[in-house]
Amino acid sequence: MADKILFTGTTHVKGGAEGYARSDNGVVDIQLAEPHPAAENLFAAAWSACFLGALGLAAQQKKVALPVTPEIDTTIDLLHKNGGFVLRARLAVQVPGVDRAVAQDLIEAAHAICPYSKAVAGNIDIDLTLAEPALA
Predict the structure, then answer these.
(1) How far is CA 136 from the centre of its chain?
(2) Which of 2, 19, 58, 123, by CA, is between 20 and 30 Å from 84?
(3) Chain centroid, CA 9 distance in Å
(4) pLDDT at 135 over 80
(5) CB neighbours (10 Å) of residue 95?
């Protein structure tokens, strides 16, 4: 059976002092005068968005109602290590209104579902934690 494309994202990026990133559908349109930390911020945003979708799917599969929309604080670090450059990720996932054990199970299931998590598995250090919801 042929692969079925669900979504496609295309961006054009220009470097330099007048640099930018623009998606063909207009969702992304930002100035990128410097490549870093823009690259890390964009990767963090993309991974977080995908992870939230995977978390929703995991909750649906496990028949867990999410009374409040989950949130994620994702940090991507660019490190100089062993003479080269590597990434490190920290995802702090908030799943308000859900028992902690159930929420932990959901984030682990989402990590197994998320294509971004799969893409970097075994390639970068990942710290995935269940965080307390921020106080309003």
Answers:
(1) 23
(2) 19
(3) 15
(4) no
(5) 26
